[in-house]
Amino acid sequence: MTNIFELYKKSKADHRQEYIDLYDARANERTADFSGSKGYFYDKLRELVSFYVKPGKRVLAVNADAGHYLTWTEPSYGVGIETAPGLVDVARKAYPEFTFNVCAPEEFEPEEQFDYIIIVDAVNDMFDVQMALEKLRPACHDDTRIIITWYNFFWKPLLQAAEKWGMKRPSTPQNWLSKAHIQQIVTLAGYEQTAHTRKILLPYKVPVLSNFINNYIGGLPLINHFCLMNLMVARPLPVRDEKKFGVSVIVPCKDEADNIEAAVLRTPQMGKHTELIFCDDNSTDGTPDVVKRMQKEHPDKDIKLVNGPGICKSENVWTGFNAATQDIVMILDGDLTVPPEDLPKFYNALATGKGEFINGTRSVYPMRDDAMRLANIFGNKAFSMLFSHILSQSITDTLCGTKVLWRKDWLRVRDLLGTWGINDRWGDYELIFGAARLGLKHQDLPVRYMERVHGETKMTGRLKNAMVMLRMCMAAFKKFK
Predict the structure, then answer these.
(1) Which fold has domain 246-480?
(2) What pLDDT, in 10s, does the model give residues 172-226?
């Protein structure tokens, strides 16, 4: 056993020394790699990483190279660890506003926590990827996101040829990891994947052609499997007391007077406190009067009434979200086609950490004959498949009104409203896109979808709505793929 252990330690030491010798020898030249003929690749990589990192946060860069990766994220506080002392010297001179330390990832002992941990290309060089990720766990709080990029195995012969021809910097023997490998290692280290994407099909700049291929062709199904770079967003698995959170149930309603009492009586009490916020969007059937009557008849329930702007459903929902005071915000459509009795399932999924953005799906259980028109069913399935590909995560129903997330995450999603190049009149896509951009763990939750008992559907003009959804697909494809 001693001999085996000694061999292991020697192998680890040899790996580290080989890394140091290689990168220290070229440390002063490293800055030049981010410009010139290689600059295009790093520009695209910067776009990929910075898309998932909100500026002004606390960021840790693992194997931070010469410090450039930290600048991509525009942090309020930036720390880099790097195995090669020569690269640390270059980074400290170039970016004195950040803190850099000489440390191998497998030996890191963090003493503070960060909002983002970026591992750009570093898993390719690590001696033990799982050990490095386990060492990073104390640097995470519940909302920390780990951004990992690595090379696609299909590019191995091309990258080796590029090194030989001087088109790529030399590297130590690489870990050629598949997506499945990274997923397994991430899980074993105590994390969970929340997003994955592939980018950069043509890493060298060819005027017009490179941007066209990378922006449009590289994101297509099957073709994107041949992109050079993988990116995964992961989160630390949370441990929570599921009973300690309060809930704000947002009920957007327009002319839903006959459904208000049922919403009050049927909505269960969840967590430590439940408030019911009715958002009236200029109803003409006396909906606000029914809400006020419910407030008087049920003083034991926390019932609120807010006035929506009368523009569209999404703006009405945002009004309710902004009025929420509890830890968790839920949407319960005023037509009650998703039963209020299902809401505790959403609460439990979020509160126990099974997901961070819980999306109702009506595509699992059979529907009553009058619940949804056949054309709407097929259209919703088609768009769900498109969005699943675009966002690289399974979404089986984009337009189910019941969506649940943490209020603190809503405040971050709110900053992204209107940035997608399309007006979302329903709000479903703003929430789905925003959650994906923030790297929130998406979880579909099956619900029984019932036909309306009172009132009329607001989802009219199917062809017009389909065109709006198609434009949203195009907007999302441009941003994510």
Answers:
(1) Spore Coat Polysaccharide Biosynthesis Protein SpsA; Chain A (3.90.550)
(2) 887 888 888 888 889 888 899 999 999 999 998 999 999 999 988 998 888 989 9
Does residue 144 contact residue 79 with C-beta atoms inside 8 Å?
A: no
Helix ranges (DSSP H) in 64-138:
68-73, 85-94, 129-136
Phi-psi region of 324 (alpha: psi -120 to 50; beta: other; left: phi over 0): beta
Token digits for 61?
A: 């860069």
- Cα separation, 62 vs 317, whole angstroms: 40
Q: Per-residue confidence at 1, pLDDT binned at 50, 70, 90?
A: very low
Note the helical H segments in 392-461: 407-414, 428-437
- 129 touches 175 (CB < 8 A): yes
Residue 481's nearest CA partner among 201, 256, 275 is 201
CA dist list (Å): 401 to 203, 362, 365: 41, 10, 16
What's the token pair of residue 150?
Answer: 């690595």
Chain region(s) in the chain for CATH 3.90.550.10: 246-480
- The Cα–Cα gap between 111 and 109 comes to 7
CATH 3.40.50.150 location in the chain: 2-236
Which residues sit opposite 304 in a β-bridge?
Answer: 277
Tally of CB atoms within 10 A around 121: 17
CB-based burial label for 275 (10 Å; 0-12, 13-18, 19+) = middle
Nearest-5° Cα angle at 445, 197 to 404: 85
Residues 6+ apart with CB under 8 A from 161: none
Question: What is the layout of strands, in order, in the sheet containing 114-120?
Answer: 99-102, 77-82, 58-62, 114-120, 140-151, 229-236, 191-199
Q: Top-level CATH class of 2-236?
A: alpha beta
